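Course assignment 3, question 2. Fill in each field.
Student: A.L.
Task: Predict the tertiary structure for the chain below.
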Amino acid sequence: MREEKTSRMATLLAGLRQASDAMPLSSEAIVALIEQHLACKNSSRLPVLIVAAAYQVAGVKIGERLLSLKGHNAADEQTGALGDVEICLEGDDHVVTAYEMKLKRVTIDDLDRALQKIAAANERIHNYIFITSDVIEDTVKSYATEAYDRTGGTELVILDCIGFLRHFLHFFRRFRLAYLDAYQELVLAEPDSAVSQPLKEAFLALRQAAEADV
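Answer field:
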């Protein structure tokens, strides 16, 4: 089984290399590709990788760096993490931006727990960002906006996962292919317990099909 898995991955990766001389995918084509990947089963880890890949590609440009990702099943209480993705300024070690991923609607209770983390942090958090794949309710959005005054300057915001990706790819359009490669690298590097082998193969097959259509 291990040899079959290795062979399938090698075949899929070889197919991508053969298609490397095709016209580059557009930003919208990359959005569609990753949106298809998100629609696959057992994709709960992918939003973390979507955001992490963005900082891997653009972090140096904006003077920020991505901290090492925690394990998929590691609770924040155990690791001491502020969020699923944590960002520091270059040359500094304290977290200024934290991302928390939700595959369901963000609630006021979620925001209150985030406010508790912000209050308990040793240094001031600049941004605490929820990334969701569900509807963002107006009442919850308004409650998040009020946090700026309550925390003395910390932004608490809820963003749509695909909306975040689309804005990033258009804003950093010249880095869109580097982003796609970074996302692929993160997906393939995850343990199978976080991103299953079928989910890894699905991404490679989807990318190969997308690039073949260009």
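Instructor remarks: The first helix runs from residue 2 to 18. The chain has nine helices and five strands.
Grade: pending
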